[in-house]
Amino acid sequence: MDEFLLPVMIVGMLFIGLPWLIFHYVTKWKQAPKITNEDEKLLDELYSLARRLEDRVSTVERIVAADHPDWKTSMPLAADPTDFTTRRN
Fold first, then answer.
1. Where along the chain do its domains lie?
2. N- to C-terminal Cα distance for the chain?
3. Given 3-state DSSP classes, what are the helix, strand and coil percentages for the chain, each rounded to the nearest 5?
4. Where does the sequence pass through the membrane (predicted)?
């Protein structure tokens, strides 16, 4: 009985189970909501705002570090704004 059941299960999984799984996730992927043009514009605006705010913060950090030299050693975010290795995410 085992000699017959094992090959039938393997063939069933290969030709029925695997395609069903693939087609299931393909249809889920196609039903996923799409990003509209308004969403793209909003993301672009948010990205530019984040970049401007990051530039402002780095400017303030450089000013404070110039006024108080010991502040730079205690604050890791006061490093070079182009050096992304010391920044926290």
1. 1-32, 33-89
2. 59
3. 80, 0, 20
4. 6-26
Q: Are 63 and 81 in contact (CB under 8 A)?
A: no
Contact 51, 63 (CB under 8 A): no
The predicted-structure confidence for 73-85, as pLDDT tens digits, reads as follows 544 554 555 555 5
The residue behind tokens 């303030």 is 60
Residue count (the chain): 89
The DSSP secondary-structure symbol of 79 reads: S
Q: Distance between CA 11 and CA 15 in Å, rounded?
A: 6
**Which whole number is the average pLDDT over 19-44?**
93
Distance CA 6, CA 76 (A): 61
Contacts of 62 (CB under 8 A, 6+ apart): 78, 81
Please tell me the pTM assigned to this model.
Answer: 0.47
